[in-house]
Amino acid sequence: MFRFVLIFSLLISVVPAARAQQIPTVTDLCSGIPVGAGSIDAVTLTQITDGGMVNRYACTFQPSTFNPAAANKLVVVLHGGNGNATTLSGKGLQVEAEARGYLISFAQGWPHPTTCPSDLCTVNGWDGGDTINGVDVDVAEINQAFISILVDAAVGDYNIDPSEVYLAGFSGGAKLIYRLMAGDTQALLHPFQPAAVATMAGSVMSVDVPANGGSGEVNAIHVGAGARPVPALVMQGLQDDRVPFYGGFNHNQSKVDSSFFEKIDLIRSLNAAFGAAVQQPPQWVAPLGGRPAQVKEFSGLAPVVSVAAQQLDHQWPTWYAPLVFDFFDAM
C-alpha cells in the first residue's frame, strides 16, 4: 500500500554538492523496502523555503497489527551519509517492528544534485555547509527541522504517541541524532522530544583536513539551553576506519575524529548536566562476530549504554536491530 502525505512548512533549505543519481518517484524509492506482512507508505513532505518550494521524502513502514485508532510507537531511521531511505531497510529493523508493534519512518536526507536533475536522489546527506541564492546555510539545521516535520506528520497521520518517538541512525545519520540530543528540539518549528535514541558510529567532533581532500570545516555538537536528558544506546566497531574507534585520522586522512570514549563521556556528561546525574551501566563488549547480551534493566532517568564491537568495521550489523528494539522497549 502506498500513500502520499503532503505537509507545508516555512523553512530555509540548502542543496549541498555531491554525486548522485535520480530516482524516478518516491513510490519507486519505497518499493525497495521489504515489508513482510506489513505495508509501506511513500511519504512526500513539502517545505516552502526562501528559494522556493522543495520536496522531502520518507518511507513509513506499518506492521500488520497497526491500528490507526490506537496510540502507536514510531522509530525514525536516519541512513548514513551518501545513502538514502532504503539503505538500512535490509538490516532487520522491520522484522523487529513487526514483532513489537512499532512503525518505522525511513527518512531521506538532503539530495546531492551534482549529477541528479531531480530532488529525489540515490545519494543524500545530513550535514555540511552550502549556499542557496547567495545565503549561507547549515544543512544540519535544515535537517533537524525536517525530522521535526516528519515526526509531526506521523503523529497526525498514524496516531503516534508523542512520548513514544525514537530515533535510530548510522554514521552521518547518527551525527544528526547527536545534534538533536544536544539541541533544544522543543524550539524547532514542530517541537518533539525523543524518548530514546540508538546510534552506530557518527561523530560528535571532527576536523576536516584540507591538505588531504577535506573541507577544512570543524564539526562539533553545540549544546542548546533547552536540551533535555535522552536515553541512548551507542555502538561502534573497533575496526571502523571511517570514524575511528580510538579517534584520530580516518581511512584517507581527510578527517580527524574524537574517540568513542570521548563521545560516550560527552553524552553522559550532557545527560548529567540536564538533570539525569545517575549511575550509568558499564560498557559492553560484543564477542567476536556476535551481539552482546539482551537488554534487560537500566538504572536512572536517562542511561547511556555503550557497545564496543570487536570485529565490526563501518557498518550497521543485522544483529543490532534486536538490541535497539530491546533498548526502546526497556525505556
Task: Describe it.
The protein is an alpha/beta fold. It has a single domain (8-330), classed as Alpha/Beta hydrolase fold, catalytic domain (Rossmann fold, 3-Layer(aba) Sandwich), CATH 3.40.50. It is 21% helix and 28% strand. The chain has six helices and 18 strands. It has a ten-stranded mixed sheet with strand order 1-2-3-5-4-10-11-14-18-17, with helices on both faces.
Structure summarized in a few sentences:
The chain contains six helices and 18 strands. It is α/β, with parallel strands linked by helices. The protein has a single domain, classed as Alpha/Beta hydrolase fold, catalytic domain (Rossmann fold, 3-Layer(aba) Sandwich), CATH 3.40.50.1820.
Outline the secondary-structure elements.
Layout: E1 8-10, H1 26-30, E2 39-49, E3 52-62, E4 72-78, H2 93-100, E5 102-107, E6 110-111, E7 124-125, E8 129-132, E9 135-138, H3 139-158, E10 160-170, H4 172-182, E11 196-200, E12 205-208, E13 218-220, E14 232-237, E15 248-249, E16 255-257, H5 260-273, E17 284-286, E18 304-309, H6 320-330
Parallel strand pairs: 1-2, 4-5, 4-10, 10-11, 11-14, 14-18, 17-18
Antiparallel strand pairs: 2-3, 3-5, 6-7, 8-9, 12-13, 12-16, 15-16
